[in-house]
Amino acid sequence: MSFYPRAGAGGPRALGSRPGDLSGGLAGNRPASLQPARSTSGQTNSNEAVRLLQLSPTEREAYLVWYREVRDPATGYVPGDAAASLLRRSNLYKDLLRQIWVLADTRRRGYLDQDEFFVALRLVAICQRGGEPSLDSLRRFRGMQLIPQIDPASASRPSAQTTPGAASAAQPRASSSTSANPGETLSWTPTYEQIAEYDALMRQYCGGGTQPGRHQSAARLVRLADLRMTGSIAREVFPKLCQHRLSSAILRDIWELADQDRDGQLDLQEFRCAAHLLTVLGRQPADKAVVPRPLPPALRKQSLRLRFGDGANTAGEFTEAAPSVPSDALSVISSPNAEVPASRNTDLAGAFSAASKSVEDAQRRLKELRDHLDLLEVRGRALAEKKRVTLANSSTSTLERIYAEEQAFVRDARGVVEACLLDLGGTPGQSQSESVATASRPGPELESERTMTAWGPSFSLNLQQLLIKAKNETARERAKVKVLEEELQIARRQIQDMVATGATAPDKFGTGRTEGHRRTRNVHGAKLEPHEPGKSATQRRAPGGQKNVSGSLLDDWSQDDADVNADDDEARNQRARSKRIERAAYRFSAEEQVPEDKPIVRDDLVDVPPEWSAAAEHALSANESRQQSKLASTGTARGAADSRARGDSPYRPPRYQGMTRDAATAFGAYIQDVDGARSRRFADDEPRDERPSERRRASRQAAQWRQTSVAEPSEDENWRSGSDYIEVSESVHETTQGGSQRAAQNRSGAMTVGSTAEDDDDEWSRSASTAIFSYW
Amino acid sequence: MSERLYYFVIVGRDDRVLYDLLYPASLSELDWRTSSELSSPAERGDFEPHHFIPSIQVLLQFVAYSALDHIEEKYWLTSARSLKHIFRFRDWSASVQLTPNAATRFVLVHGASDDASRNVRAFLHAVYEAYVPHVVCNPFQEEDAPITSKRFHEVAKNLAKRYFSG
């Protein structure tokens, strides 16, 4: 039935119920050299081991209980089989027990006296803590209180191994009741010492490996949090961590549990989790080593981070606590608490301070997250608004959908934050481990480490998902903005060159015209154009060119191809085109003479999103006031009526209003925004002052490309929002013409035609911006 | 009933079955079990030769294995890695998602009707997307070993539920 190994499936059996028990196996498997044989050299060894044994009264008392249980009352010795059956109930591996026996029974007598039996018990305790059975570990663990965990139920009945039912019934971990420090060895919650060892291992295998020649301190400059353990390293490390006791299937499951974000590598928290799983499971007998599912809450990334820190500071407290980062850190893993017995005295205070620290840490982190989310919300709004403007003339449905998505995203974000705040405020009802949370229901200021782990995972997991989502969102938006930006840059370079090559003839038109007024009536193309009855021939040709401009990109291209093929119309089309160029040039040069027409440069628009809408507002109001003053001076009734009919709403997207001036101003604001994005990008890379030279270089390139010797534009030339408009349509022509000769022809045409065609200037500029809006 | 039955199998090199999943619970007691969990008639103790009825599972596996041959034929003719309706048998159809080297094949047997084969491609792609982090990225997963990842199992089940429950 069970396709996968489950925790409770087989029911871990007591070791004692295994058929091949220790007493038989030990005697049978013992090498010949270890057979009971009295040797004088063994005497000193035994003395050494016994001398290293300095039992505290508590330990002695506990050991004596077992001693009295198994000793032979007549002789006072512990016979081999009785000792073996007792030691076997410590659930240690046979290999370990064999080594322990060799160490304890140094005289090879086959039985132990009291001290030797104590040595064996102590070695069992050491092994249960992860140490190795050796004199060295006896020396290292000297002074620490170690009481082995031995199954008491079968201890009361030494013949339990003959009745497997009784042994398995006595199984459910009664060891914690006998041990002085319950659950210390086999707990899923790692201790600080263990975490220190894991960190040292991480440092050794993943940090130092990249720079083999460097000194240890150099390797430490890499933050622990930045280390990643790849699969190939894990292949090497994992078996060592469990001392080659776990099958590859279990290792696979451990990896699966530990790689909690499933990116194919382990970061620090994940490695801590994996290492602890390996350590704990590696100490258990093979039939008991079942991967816990689901992952214990204490081993989740978030709770590990909350409890033990994220390793962000180089060589943090835990690596420092680790004993001197040994050459083979695996010896550390097998001997925990080697150098830190002193900390055991201050365990309580340390735990409390750590707990309060972790709570503070969590609160700080939560605050950061909240700020971040606020920022995200603002940014999301700005992005949505920007999209609403830029996509105003494209598909409505996609626009609405995107906007709705944005809104939903922001709403979600708020919801999660509120939920987290509620959670922090003392109602950890939704947390993962209910029992712990309800046992000590915390206020936010109740610094209890247990409550931290109780509500820690759930809320931070939520936040993590949310942040990932938000990150994806912003990345997507950035990409879109970047694409737009690049397009604009290309177009801008070309039109700048065009402006520079002297199509600035019609300065004589002066500054009386307001481009905002022109924009007011142009967006939806020719059908909105007022038809003027008395047009000259050139004027009547204008709609053809206008259609050319107002068509989509592809239309433009195809039309230009048609132009190339049709030699008859070429001259005329070229004249039209060059006239258009000339109009654009005129427009921009004219605009530059109006000081308040300069765009409001908002470089911080992307960095500080809420001001984007403010910028749009500002641009609009400035434009409007300018227009109204000019309209008042020129007395154009329609423009005034337009601006009146607009109402006083500060900002309305053109899509919904059907008005063009809004579109124009908003689009101008968008261009500024893109400017801001770019300048922000520059500000990241290089000083802010580099921008003009960047611009100049671009224009120089353009000039070289067109092989003209016309003066470059002045450096302080402003980047007109309107120039971008024209650029887009012109860049289409540029790309299709492709040659400098034709461009030159264009210019000459512009010079000749532009001087004669002031009548339809207004109409041309209208058509140009129409083209822009239909394009965008 | 059989219309809405889906049998998903991952086939490794040498046509070894790495993982399989039967969806949904239309067959009475087959609720969310992989077919390897299903006891055979012989195991149930009620197997008698003259009562033998080719079960629906046998049919599904037959279609899946037949599809493997068609994969090898079509593999050289197309660069697509997702092939829908690669093989039809009566009212059953098999669709396939291939890994880049086509060593591992994701075969889904489903009803041939449009309704039943609606989300097939999306499902196969999603399973493949889950296969990469859950199985391929695990350094302790031997190549061509049966997939025993419980998480992957959960993911596959949920994907099937999402795409095929409608």
UniProtKB/TrEMBL annotation, chain A:
<dbReference type="GO" id="GO:0005886">
    <property type="term" value="C:plasma membrane"/>
</dbReference>
<feature type="coiled-coil region">
    <location>
        <begin position="467"/>
        <end position="501"/>
    </location>
</feature>
<dbReference type="InterPro" id="IPR000261">
    <property type="entry name" value="EH_dom"/>
</dbReference>
<feature type="region of interest" description="Disordered">
    <location>
        <begin position="678"/>
        <end position="768"/>
    </location>
</feature>
<keyword id="KW-0106">Calcium</keyword>
<dbReference type="GO" id="GO:0005509">
    <property type="term" value="F:calcium ion binding"/>
</dbReference>
<protein>
    <submittedName>
        <fullName>Similar to epidermal growth factor receptor substrate 15</fullName>
    </submittedName>
</protein>
<dbReference type="InterPro" id="IPR018247">
    <property type="entry name" value="EF_Hand_1_Ca_BS"/>
</dbReference>
<dbReference type="GO" id="GO:0006897">
    <property type="term" value="P:endocytosis"/>
</dbReference>
<feature type="domain" description="EH">
    <location>
        <begin position="59"/>
        <end position="162"/>
    </location>
</feature>
<dbReference type="GO" id="GO:0016197">
    <property type="term" value="P:endosomal transport"/>
</dbReference>
<feature type="compositionally biased region" description="Low complexity">
    <location>
        <begin position="166"/>
        <end position="180"/>
    </location>
</feature>
<feature type="domain" description="EH">
    <location>
        <begin position="239"/>
        <end position="306"/>
    </location>
</feature>
<feature type="region of interest" description="Disordered">
    <location>
        <begin position="501"/>
        <end position="578"/>
    </location>
</feature>
<feature type="compositionally biased region" description="Basic and acidic residues">
    <location>
        <begin position="678"/>
        <end position="696"/>
    </location>
</feature>
<feature type="domain" description="EF-hand">
    <location>
        <begin position="92"/>
        <end position="127"/>
    </location>
</feature>
<feature type="region of interest" description="Disordered">
    <location>
        <begin position="1"/>
        <end position="48"/>
    </location>
</feature>
<feature type="compositionally biased region" description="Polar residues">
    <location>
        <begin position="622"/>
        <end position="633"/>
    </location>
</feature>
<keyword id="KW-0675">Receptor</keyword>
<dbReference type="InterPro" id="IPR002048">
    <property type="entry name" value="EF_hand_dom"/>
</dbReference>
<keyword id="KW-0175">Coiled coil</keyword>
<feature type="compositionally biased region" description="Polar residues">
    <location>
        <begin position="36"/>
        <end position="48"/>
    </location>
</feature>
UniProtKB/TrEMBL annotation, chain B:
<dbReference type="Pfam" id="PF04628">
    <property type="entry name" value="Sedlin_N"/>
</dbReference>
<dbReference type="GO" id="GO:0006888">
    <property type="term" value="P:endoplasmic reticulum to Golgi vesicle-mediated transport"/>
</dbReference>
<dbReference type="InterPro" id="IPR011012">
    <property type="entry name" value="Longin-like_dom_sf"/>
</dbReference>
<protein>
    <submittedName>
        <fullName>Similar to sedlin</fullName>
    </submittedName>
</protein>
<dbReference type="GO" id="GO:0005737">
    <property type="term" value="C:cytoplasm"/>
</dbReference>
<dbReference type="InterPro" id="IPR006722">
    <property type="entry name" value="Sedlin"/>
</dbReference>
